[in-house]
Amino acid sequence: MLFRSSCPGVAWSSYVELESLYVVVVIGGGVEVVAVVVVVVVVVVVVVVVVVVVVVVVVVVLLWWW
To answer: Which parts pass through the membrane (predicted)?
Structure first.
């Protein structure tokens, strides 16, 4: 599982996270573990994106009203 991108910092952190997830999956074994890890990662990413969007919208609205 080798993932690379143009940004070294982002690539390295993503690579480390993916490798650690891969290790957990290998130790746990089974398709269920893979599915759970994927679902958890997707849910966390979606929640983070939603929170960031809401915060940005609130800040922009507050700044616009001031």
So the answer is: 33-65
